[in-house]
Amino acid sequence: MAIEGIKSYYSANKAKYTTITEEECEVIIEATLEIMETAEQIIGEKRTLEILEKAGCPVNGKKVTIPRALVLKAIETAPSSFTLYNRNGEPAMEIGGTNSYFGLGPTNPYFCDFESEERRTSVSDDTKKCMIVADALPNIDFVMSLSGSNDGPANNAEVMEMKMMLQNTTKPIIGWGNSPEGIAEIIEMCGAVAGSVEAFKEKPFVGIYVGDPVTPLTHPKDSLEKLLYCCENNIPAIYLSDSQLGTLTPVTLAGSVVVGLAEVLTGLVISQLVNEGCIYVGGVINLSVDMKPVNVCYGSPEFCLGNGACYDVLHYLNLPIWGTANITDSKFVDEQAAIEGSMTSLTSCLNGAHLIHDAGFIEGAMSAALEQIVMNNEIISYARRVREGMVINEETLALDLIRSVGAGGTFITEMHTLKNFRKVWESTLFDHTIYDPAIKPTRMYQRMKDRVASILATHKPQPLEPETIEKIEKIYQSSLERISKGKKK
Amino acid sequence: MSKITELAVVVEEGRIDDVVAAVEAALEEGNAPMDILNAGLIDPINVLGEKFRLGEVYVPELLISSKAMKMGVDRIKPLLAAGDVKVLGKAVFCTVEGDMHDIGKNLVVLLLESAGFEVIDLGMDVEPDDIVEAIQENDDVQILGMSAMLTTTMYAMKETIEALEEAGLRDRVKVLIGGAPVNQIFADQIGADGYTTNAPSAVELCKKLVVA
């Protein structure tokens, strides 16, 4: 054991591609533990502070340091894998090992309108359409709401979004919350779908993205309240750190990764102190910063590298991993979006991140587009085929066949070809045709639009029972009452 | 090279470890404190500002030089007469209630201070009433700058503007907003006087607002 008290799962979880070596993981882990033990972090929530103090963390006002032993224990007690089910209670995703699943991004304020292609405020109907498109696409494994519900009150937008998601896809869902009250209503909705809240918790098809630390080293009240709520109620919780090179974290990747991991492992410690053995998924986004205007960049080689290093470290620690890919800073579903999506999809899936979110996002998570979901689906499919690799055995070497077809022959009429040619990756969007003056070639963007239009016209996600829909609607109505009461106060 | 020119180079290069010694060297050479201030400390920042506009210099370079300038000004301040350091304007800045994301706000404050503004920084997660109180207590404040990073907190800006109206203070200050989810349309909706997308343009806007 290279780190006293931590077993390495680096080889056990070894992905097709790793960003850093096992020894480098150990350097990063040691550095992270050192920072947690020697640099104070702000804990903005009173009960969390008490929990940490009781567990032996030195407390100084709102600031704490976290002893190494607590981190090691949390790493040991947190589950390394779990199953997320679909809405029908069937296993859909085995989170763990090097399994990689891709999903949409969460709520955002704007949407690129499919008809007009104009940027406008997002509404709940956008979430519905995103669900229909994601439900139809084979490489979108789980969903998030992608667009915010700005047609309703902001204080319970997450409940509206969950309502739209539950009704328009059977795929596993990652929701979010304004507050523990909102999450409670979401879970009540899930209970309505599963038959009871207990039945839902037995086979969860929804996890909750509880929020972010405020990097560097600050854990705000609202994120912690939601984290505590999810842990105490056995709802899979996701906590995601945003490192920004040179503004919120050191400009050098190694230091940036350490800050992000320190925050994520702090969330882990809290989760295990609150409810030992509860499911906790951590992740770090490493954003480079364009220092001319000081804007963050979702697309960059550093994004791939920093995130990859975190995936390797979390594999080493055998913990569930929240990943990020497919997002672009571009205002359009364009060449930049394609490049950024390709690089991040390929590296995150080769690197074996578990739940890789943010498909569908454009404009650095401020907007989204249906065409982007379709393009990301294609990119993911491509990346997955690369990750699958190639098989080398007697059958695939086909030496007898090479001899029998011989010089100048053709393989196209051979049984071996017939048996295997469909295994070769096939695009659903690319144009491989030879130029024909009689046919006007189309751009890929047009083909993506056609695909969206066809999905929206023909794809009907499996509906919920009318009485379930009624129950969900009732929960939403009481949620509206809750927030209108809150306002009157 | 005169010691003032050397100081200007130190500031332009952002050499914060050397700036105090460079100011002292310029004083020893017999230069008037006002000349040191203008030619040794403020001029190089103006030069950098121009280079920034041309895209030759990036924000970290601008900030570190501003920090060097501030250190130099602190050294020379006791030697200046009261009215010598010109204050361009006075502003109150904060992130709004519920919002703990302050990097953008901090950047604007730093750049504003180096541009010659006096800034009262109320910090993060500041309730409308506390903002109103700060403006009440400082009747020479011309600008209120508010920032929000989340769609869930941006509406606190609206509430703050309403609180200013209730307190009868709305006309006394120009309200400037910023942050990832807000834009000009939102600024217009809530009745803010200005919005910009980044810190350097926020400084330009503040300059315009205090002149207007």
Compute the number of strand runs of chain B.
5
> Regions of chain A with pLDDT < 50 over 5+ consecutive residues?
none
Distance between the ends of chain A: 57 Å
Described by the principal axes of the CA atoms, the overall outline of chain A is globular
Please work out how many helical segments of chain A DSSP would assign. Answer: 17
| Average of pLDDT of chain A | 96
What structural class do you assign from the helix and strand content of chain A?
alpha/beta
Task: Assign the CATH architecture of the largest domain in chain B.
Answer: 3-Layer(aba) Sandwich
| Radius of gyration over C-alpha positions of chain B, nearest whole angstrom | 19 Å
CATH class of the largest domain in chain B: Alpha Beta
Q: What would you call the structural class of chain B?
A: alpha/beta
Report on the biggest sheet of chain A: 5 strands, mixed
Major protein interface? A-B, 21 and 19 residues
| Shape field of chain B | elongated
EC number (chain B): 2.1.1.13
GO cellular component, one term (chain B): cytosol
Keywords (chain B): Cobalt, Metal-binding, Methyltransferase, Transferase
Enzyme class (chain B): transferase
What does this structure look like?
The complex is a heterodimer of chains A (489) and B (212). Chain A is of the alpha/beta class and 489 residues long. Chain A has one domain: Trimethylamine methyltransferase-like (TIM Barrel), CATH 3.20.20.480. Chain A contains 17 helices and 18 strands. In chain A, the strands form six sheets. Chain A has a five-stranded mixed sheet. In chain A, strands 2-3-1-11 form a four-stranded mixed sheet. In chain A, strand 17 and strand 18 form a beta hairpin. The termini of chain A are far apart. The model of chain A has no long low-confidence stretch (mean pLDDT 96). A five-stranded parallel sheet of chain B has the order 2-1-3-4-5, with helices on both faces. In chain B, helix 5 links the parallel strand 1 and strand 2. In chain B, helix 4 crosses helix 5. The mean pLDDT of chain B is 91. At the A-B interface, loops of A face helix 5 of B.
